[in-house]
Specification:
The protein contains 19 helices and ten strands. By secondary structure, it is an alpha/beta fold. It has two domains: 282 residues, Up-down Bundle (ABC transporter transmembrane region fold); 232 residues, 3-Layer(aba) Sandwich (Rossmann fold). One of its GO terms (biological process) is protein secretion by the type I secretion system.
Amino acid sequence: MFINILQLTFPIYMLQIYDRVLSSYSLPTLYVITVAAVVALIVMSTLEFIRSRLLVRCGVAIDQALSRDVLDQLIKKAALPGAVQANQAGLRDVNLVRNFFGGNAIFTLFDIPWTPMFLAVIFFLHPLMGTVATGGAVLLIILALVNEKLSRKPLDDANTLNNYSMKFVEASRRNAQAVNSMGMLGGVTRRWQGFNDNVMKLQTQASRRSGGVQALSGWIRQVMQVAIFGVGAWLTLDGQATPGIMIASSIIMGRALAPVQMGIGSWKSMIEARGAWQRLKATLGGLEQKDSMELPDPKGELAAEHVTFALNNSFILRDINFSLQSGESVGLIGPSGAGKSTLCRLLLGIWPASGGVVRLDGANVYDWDQSRLGSFIGYLPQDVELFAGSVADNIARLGEVNSEEVVAAAKRAGVHELILALPKGYDTNIGEGGVVLSGGQRQRIGLARAIYCLPRLVILDEPNSNLDEEGEKALLESFSHLRAAGSTLIIVTHKPSLLAGVDKILMLKNGQVALFGPRDAVFKKLLEMQNKQA
């Protein structure tokens, strides 16, 4: 508020110079108004500096308030069924909003509401000059609305297509080996080039339209300066105004119209910031916030009650019923596509069931606070993903490294000696995705991460993939450690030798429970079924 009021300093100073000082030849008056003007300008500059610093801090505060929540939601959404791979678009949107607060475009939003005040001052000096200035402001506002109409859609389309292009690049990067080995690089680059060409076309279209409107607005503003001087000179010659009023009106009109023209010039950044904010609202509001009551530490009792799961109106699991006591182990078997991995995700609370409920110690597993439940859960997915960092960091799940527990987990997974053979042992940086490790090494370190601190519920999805004979032997020994610790264990496998020590077998077929019961009884039933078919 005070900044915009103080912007009247120079026009008022010029008005006093022309109408008071020059006509009276009063040096004392000149000294007084000059000192007053300088002091006012110092105050205005100080306030502008403070405002700029506050807006930068506001942008940083927004970043700190949103970044973590946005990342949480991106990762949670990526874990949902049918979701695309998480990307950094949400975090880029946070950066856009933060940079908007730290840039010059936001000052336009603060200054535009003061345009009517400046116009009112010109009306006070002379109604005709106020009418001329208001006409110019109306023309520029109309141009701003036209600019919005012409620029918004191509910019929105360009941002949408650019995000899709970034996802395509990320997918290509993840599949780089297949792309290079099978000669797909040309097709990948051509497809990306098509996306990029369309993005550039849309952005160029928006820039051309905005540039044309901006050039027209600049011309109108210059014409208005000519008009205000012309009208002011005519009024002065007619005795209705003074030279000071003419000069002051011209300066004030420049102040009044400048924010509107600046708004047209920075319209692209405003649209981008607004779009980023809307996407952030959608990201943060897209998932239900679960109010999780504090529950006792789980013991590992697991039950599926009439669990059904559908994706895109297609049922993957139907009416799944079984229960496990704490410390029991079960082998989850069945043909490919039977729904084994899907069931694992439901049992872990990663995905919500379409019908029925999965209970951990009697409570719906999807209602547990995942940040707290995670320390009691061990999970080894089919595709093991490790993080850039040390071996110890990965085994400790990126938390505070407890050296004793890390080493104990590695020994239980039979990977301790393998880790010691690495260049820096547990402190070896394995690179993004564990790139410096072999598939078997990643699998075994992933197993150590899954059984870190002996969780109460451990689910291993095809844990023997990428393992050699020595690795499978270590895997079987880890099962013994988990059973001895009383962990509830679920093993998804096609290999009967891994099921030697399990208590029960759960067989899925076509998304339904085909067999469930004690291991020997289920194997006997399977043998009878095979004999009948033979």
